[in-house]
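call fold(seq) -> tokens
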Amino acid sequence: MSKSHISDIERGQRNISLTTLETLMNALDIDPSGLFNFQTLDGVDGIHEKKLIIDIHKSMLMERGLDEVQYIVRTASDFLGTLDAKEASRRSKKD
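ret:
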């Protein structure tokens, strides 16, 4: 990919395919959340520790099969949903 092509993409003058986007993310060693996260998290307490823990878990998950990863994601989503529901219930009782 030429420098001018990448420059056109950066300036929004050229659209890219998902395959090209994936190629760029792999070349830059970033994941979609890193690419599309426009919020600055550096001021958040413990952000560096959280990133490290997430990176460690990501490495562990990459070694597993797709069905196992999907199961873990569903389980984590269910668990977080339960925590969020408990927090919402606690707040509504407080109000």
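The mean pLDDT is 85.
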